[in-house]
User: What shape does this take?
Amino acid sequence: MRGRRFHVVVALLLMGVFISLSGCRIQPRVRTLPEEIHNVYVPMFLNTSYEPGLEELATRATEEAFLADGRLEVVTPVNADVIVQGTILDFIDNMGAAESDHFPLINNMNVKVKVNLYSPKDRLHPIMEYKPFTVGTSYVSDVRRVTMTIPEDAKQSLMDGLGRQVALEVLTGQYTKPAEEQKPK
Assistant: This one.
């Protein structure tokens, strides 16, 4: 009788452990993009920041992120269900930490972006708007360090992160639909 109780207690404890651990797994973000959208076109990003050349890096990184994700196909504008238009609003590369001799050690690089989705038939009025978001990275900028990262490599890393975040926002982010009364009839 005692052995049976022991096995029941152990079984209950194991079930409790498994149930509590099953709640600890990472829950993937749920797709919020309508299911009828399968194909996207990513035109050149618009760049309103003072940093030239970001638009090309951001566009390429975003296309690569959609291709790597695999849930949406990147196509030409004619075959697209929606057009993903990104706008770079701001770019900042500033010193984050310095040595005692005031020589920069760590730099922080941030880019702020807004994404809108447009119908291929109407590129003037967005069908979905996403809140602006910021993507950032830090890198060792001290040229005296072996671990130093050149700013161009840090910028590419930032743009790769931006591309992944744009793809994630388009697929699973919260968007708003512009009011119908704003559109001309």
